[in-house]
């Protein structure tokens, strides 16, 4: 399926769940409502015509200082799906606010989501509801804050905490 | 493995190797890493042993985290190139080109034909280096020190090629948004031919030393295996995915650079164990050399006809004259460059860089020889100027040595990337590592970890 066909399929299936779509630079992208996220992901994985059997990447972006998005939902959690049988891709995004930065976990669908969601929690402070073990992935447990947030200054230093004596 | 029996369990702490088969169910915690002789990379694996069997393993990463993605946000688009060198430091050229291609995709520009071929050749040479390192190091950990020395010798020939082109061996910073730093040096094809011949000899020797070797096979076959379904569900790409019989290769699935114009095979195996991964990597090296040879022989561009008036000038004298305003006729004087920078004079520069003044720095002759060139240079270098892609986002994937290497770049229309995300190809296999080693013996951790080819630079970013 081409990118526009995939997006059409998603819009047909989830009338309210798909908020908006675009195909900038040929990357099919759909912004999905948080409540519908798991259904959309499951539909993408299990529907044979979609066939997205791989969660290629899961990341996030902080739109705090993005022109025109200062007031909007602050975070976007980005799912990049790849379909091995059909060799096509789609990018799904979920927008969440800072004071309610929780997204349902996709660990039950793809085990790799475990580490990728831990990284997003670590770097952006977005929580994943239903994650079995939401620890930091790259930083240490004593680290304060979430470094990839736009309001985390790049030159802030924190004491390195060694192993407990 | 025996289950814990609860009552009557002895409380004495066990030594390594004790408890196996006793049915006591008492386990021993053994930490492997972060710095361990058998770990070529800084990673910590906490294992819970029952005798010699790993009952549970927890993998902890992040020891090499140096805020790659955050650092990318504070400089211009080309400032991230040196950081990408340090992602997968065994094949940095692929990172350079993949990042540059992602920004090019965001900008909507095309690089020149010759640049596409150069990227293909250099990426394939890097892939051979990477596989040589991976196979050599894991063979060494199983006692085959000779193989390690042979393979590092072959890698040395290839790194000499890289040094010839880029001026450096590891931190090459050779890619640029819109092109590459410099054209290939003279006589490069002949050097590649001779280096590949030596590499093929080494691969041949290694095949004879390892592929049918009883000890090696016993340690590798059936060890660290994942099924096809598990591999896909864990998002694993690259040699580990091809070792379970899935012929997914970004070079074939979405051809970029010059991969649609060369012939190559995507080697696959069925078993998904360490031995299958070894065989896939060995076969891929041959395919990579095939691609590089074809790309070199089909390299467009031809010889550069240099017929400038006047003798070549020393670069320093050239810059001095330009600064003093003596620019008349200067534009036509060629620069005599140092050997490390050969292929940087204007005709070569124009061959390998996109003709887009908003993106690519002009060649030095133009910068110092004409006011337009100088303005163009400043417009790209000064604070607040530089490359300014339109607002939006783009994801570009390339086949790194460990699998799909993707860069997801978001632009807010300014001269700095708003967000750069690197999809590290070795994160999914490392995430699945505990799944691969649980239930196996502690000694099998070493070859499995070797076959995963963890690269701390890209894993921890």
Describe the structure.
The complex is a heterodimer of chains A (about 160) and B (about 450). The radius of gyration of chain A is 17 Å and the shape is globular. In chain A, the strands form two sheets. A five-stranded mixed β-sheet of chain A has the order 1-2-5-4-3. Chain A has a two-stranded parallel sheet with strand order 6-7. Chain A is built from three helices and seven strands. Chain A has helices at about 5-15, 35-45, 115-125; strands spanning about 20, 30, 55-60, 75-85, 90-95, 100-105, 125-130. The longest helix of chain A has 12 residues, at about 115-125. Chain B has about 450 residues and is mainly alpha-helical. Chain B has a domain at about 110-300 and about 425-460: Cytochrome-c3 Hydrogenase, chain B (Orthogonal Bundle). In chain B, strands 1-2-3 form a three-stranded antiparallel β-sheet. The interface of A and B includes residues 25 and 152 of A.
Task: Give a quick summary of the entry.
Chain A is an alpha/beta fold and 165 residues long. Chain A is 20% helix and 25% strand.
Question: Secondary structure elements and their pairing?
Answer:
The complex is a heterodimer of chains A (165) and B (461).
Chain A: H1 3-13, E1 18-22, E2 29-32, H2 37-46, E3 54-62, E4 75-83, E5 88-96, E6 102-104, H3 113-124, E7 127-129
Parallel strand pairs in A: 2-5, 6-7
Antiparallel strand pairs in A: 1-2, 3-4, 4-5
Chain B: E1 28-32, E2 44-50, E3 53-60, H1 68-72, H2 80-85, H3 92-107, H4 113-141, H5 145-166, E4 175-176, E5 179-180, H6 188-211, H7 214-220, H8 228-233, H9 239-242, H10 250-253, H11 274-297, H12 315-323, H13 346-352, H14 364-369, H15 371-381, E6 392-400, E7 403-411, E8 417-423, H16 427-431, H17 433-437, H18 445-452, H19 456-460
Antiparallel strand pairs in B: 1-2, 2-3, 4-5, 6-7, 7-8
């Amino acid at each position: 399926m081409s990118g526009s066909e995939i997006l059409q399929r998603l819009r047909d299936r989830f009338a309210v769940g798909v908020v908006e779509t675009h195909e900038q630079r040929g990357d099919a992208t759909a912004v999905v409502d948080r409540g519908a996220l798991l259904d959309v992901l499951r539909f993408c994985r299990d529907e044979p015509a979609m066939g997205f059997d791989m969660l290629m990447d899961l990341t996030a972006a902080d739109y705090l200082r993005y022109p025109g998005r200062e007031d909007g939902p602050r975070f976007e959690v980005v799912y990049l799906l790849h379909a091995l049988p059909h060799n096509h891709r789609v990018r799904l995004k979920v927008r969440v606010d800072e004071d309610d930065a929780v997204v349902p976990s996709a660990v039950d669908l793809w085990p790799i989501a475990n580490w990728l969601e831990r990284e997003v929690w670590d770097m952006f402070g977005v929580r994943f509801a239903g994650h079995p073990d939401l620890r930091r992935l790259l930083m240490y447990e004593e680290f304060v804050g979430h470094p990839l947030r736009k309001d985390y200054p790049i030159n802030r230093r924190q004491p390195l905490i060694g192993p407990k004596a | 493995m025996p289950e814990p029996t609860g009552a009557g369990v002895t409380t004495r702490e066990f030594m390594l190797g004790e408890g196996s088969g006793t049915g006591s169910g008492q386990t021993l915690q053994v930490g492997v890493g972060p710095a361990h002789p058998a770990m070529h990379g800084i990673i910590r694996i906490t294992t819970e042993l029952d005798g010699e069997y790993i009952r549970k393993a927890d993998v902890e990463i992040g020891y090499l985290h140096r805020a790659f993605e955050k650092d990318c946000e504070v400089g211009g688009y080309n400032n991230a190139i040196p950081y990408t060198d340090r992602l997968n430091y065994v094949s940095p050229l692929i990172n350079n080109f993949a990042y540059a291609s992602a920004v090019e995709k965001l900008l909507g520009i095309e690089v020149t034909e010759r640049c596409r071929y150069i990227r293909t050749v250099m990426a394939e040479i890097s892939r051979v280096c990477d596989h040589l390192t991976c196979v050599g190091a894991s063979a060494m950990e199983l006692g085959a020190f000779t193989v390690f020395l042979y393979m590092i010798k072959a890698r040395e020939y290839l790194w000499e090629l890289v040094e010839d082109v880029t001026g450096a061996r590891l931190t090459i910073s050779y890619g640029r948004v819109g092109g590459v730093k410099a054209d290939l040096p003279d006589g490069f094809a002949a050097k590649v031919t001779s280096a590949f011949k030596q590499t093929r000899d080494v691969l041949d020797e290694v095949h004879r030393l390892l592929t049918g070797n009883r000890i090696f096979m016993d340690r590798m076959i059936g060890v660290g295996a994942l099924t096809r379904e598990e591999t896909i569900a864990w998002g694993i790409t690259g040699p580990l995915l091809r070792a379970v019989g899935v012929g997914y290769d970004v070079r074939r699935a979405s051809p970029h650079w010059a991969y649609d114009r060369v012939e190559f095979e995507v080697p696959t195996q069925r078993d998904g164990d360490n031995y299958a991964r070894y065989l896939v990597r060995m076969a891929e090296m041959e395919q990579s050399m095939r691609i590089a040879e074809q790309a070199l022989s089909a390299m467009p561009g031809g010889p550069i006809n240099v017929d400038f008036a006047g003798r070549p000038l020393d670069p320093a004298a050239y810059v001095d004259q330009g600064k003093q305003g003596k620019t008349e006729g200067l534009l036509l004087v060629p620069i005599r460059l140092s050997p490390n920078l050969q292929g940087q004079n204007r005709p070569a520069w124009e061959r390998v860089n996109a003709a887009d003044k908003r993106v690519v720095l002009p060649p030095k002759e133009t910068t110092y020889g004409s006011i337009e060139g100088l303005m163009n240079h400043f417009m790209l270098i000064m604070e607040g100027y530089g490359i300014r892609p339109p607002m939006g986002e783009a994801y570009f994937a390339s086949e790194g040595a460990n699998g799909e290497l993707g860069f997801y770049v978001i632009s807010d229309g300014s001269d700095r990337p708003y967000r750069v995300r690197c999809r590290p190809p070795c994160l999914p296999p490392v995430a699945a590592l505990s799944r691969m080693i649980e239930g196996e013996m502690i000694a099998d951790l070493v070859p499995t970890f070797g076959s995963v080819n963890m690269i701390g630079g890209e894993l921890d970013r």
